Amino acid sequence: MKYRETIIKGLAECCRVLIGAVFVFSGFVKAVDPVGFALKIGDYLIAFGLDRFQSLSQVFGFNLIAIEFMLGVCVLLGVYRRYASFLALAMMAFMTPLTLYLALFDPVSDCGCFGDAVILSNWETFGKNVVLLAAAIFLFIHNQRIYQFFTYKVYWFVALFAFFFCSFFTLQNYRHLPVMDFRPYKVGTNIPEAMAIPEGAPEDEYLYSFIYEKDGAQQTFGLDNLPAEGSGWTFVESQTTLIKQGYVPLIAAFNLYNPDDQDVTQEILQADKDVFLLVSPNLGAANDEYIDQINGVFDYAQEHALAFYGVTGSPEEEINRWIDYTGAEYPFLQADDVLLKTMIRANPGLILLRGGTVWAKWHFRDIPEMEEVKAVMDDYRGRDQAVKKEDTWMITNLLTFAVPLLFVWGYDYLRNRRRKAVDN
To answer: What percentage of the chain has pLDDT greater than the value 70?
Structure first.
C-alpha cells in the first residue's frame, strides 16, 4: 500500500508540474502580445458568427490571460489545491472538445494557445489537450496529495498577486510594444533573406484529379489514367489537393504599393538610405495624440534626406482624412492590413528599415521627439540592442514576480515553524 501511495503521489506531482507549467507559459506568452491574442479571439468570433462581440475581444483577452496565469501559478505552487485543480479540469474539459472541432472543420488556422511563440496545428493542439485533460482529471482526483509551498493563510496573497502582476504585465505590453517579439518582423530581421527560399528546398506536392462524365455517370481519373479522346468521356472539372507542404519561408509575402498601384517593395527594401515606415493598418482607428512626434520624425527625415512613408490598409478617403487632420506631408503606400498588424502591434507604429533590415520599432507612445531622433538612431544597434533590451525586461519582470513571493514564503515558513514549536 505504501508503494502504491508513493506512485500515486509521484504521478500527481508530475501532473501538477505539467499543468502548472503549461498554464503559466501559455498565460505568459499571451501577456507578452495581448493585441495578437485579441486578434485571435476576433478570428474565433468571426468563425462562430459572433462578430457583434468584437469590441469586447481585448477586455475578454486581458481577463482570460490573467486568469490562466493565476491558475497556473496556483496549481504549480499547490495553492487552493481543490479549487485550482477543479478549474484546470473545467478549462480543459471545455478546450478539448473545442480543439477537436477546430481540427475537424478548421475554422481558424491555429488555436493561438501559445500565441506566436509556439504555433501548433489544430490536430497537434487537440493531442496536447487530450494529454492535459487526462492529467487534469488525475490531478483533481488526487489534489490533496500534491505539495503545498504555502500555508492556507497566505493563499489569497499568492492568487491575487499572480492575477494583478499578470494584468499589469499585459497592460504594459498593450500600451507599448511587446517586450519579446515572436513575429517574423522582429528587430534584426532582414526581410529579403526571410522571404528567400533556399536552393534545393522541398516544394509543395499536389495530387491532381480530373472528373469526367459518361452516360450520366461521373468518375475521377488521375494524371496517369486519363480517358482517351473519343472514348465518350466528357471533362467536368479538375481538383488539386495539397498532400505535402514544402519549405515555407519566415515571411511568405511582403508587398507595398504606391498610389498608382505599382509594386515598390524592392525600391523600399533595396534603398541605400534609411527608410521610416509609419504603419497603420486602419487609419480610421489610429491614435492621433502623438502627431507632433510623428511629424517631428518626418521633419528629421526631410532634413537628412531619409525616406519616410505612411503605410496603411485603409482606402483613399481615410488617407485623405488623415492628411487633412494631421497636416501629413509624407507619401502613403498601400499594403494588406493583416501584414501591417503582423509587422507592429501599434496603430500607428513607426519602423526604421536599414538595408532591408528591421532596425528599430516604436509604439506611437514611444516615438522620440525630433531633437532625440538622431541620438536614438546613433545609439541603436539593431538586433543586438533589441535582445539586450528583451533580456533586461525579462530579468526585471522575473524579479518583480519572484521576489515578493519569496519574501511571503519566508515569512509564512518562519511563522508556521514558530506555531509548530509553540504547539509542541
So the answer is: 95
Residue 311 near residue 333, CB atoms below 8 Å: yes
Q: Angle at which helices 155-175 and 2-32 pack, to 10 degrees?
A: 30
Residues, the chain:
424
Query: Residue 372 is placed in which grid cell?
Result: 532625440
| 3-state secondary structure at position 59 | helix
Per-residue H/E/C for 193-205? HHHCCCCCCCCCE
Q: Report d(CA 154, CA 80) in Å as an integer.
A: 10
Domains of the chain: 2-175 (no CATH), 205-244 (no CATH), 265-381 (3.40.30.10)
Whether omega for the bond prior to residue 348 falls within 30 degrees of 0, making it cis, is yes
pTM higher than the cut 0.85: yes
pLDDT tens-place string over residues 221-253: 988 888 888 788 889 999 888 888 788 888 988
Q: Residue 308: name the closest of 350, 346, 348 by CA.
A: 350
Looking up cell 508530475 gives 14
CA distances to 113, 162, 220, 354, 401 from 73, in Å: 17, 7, 56, 42, 11
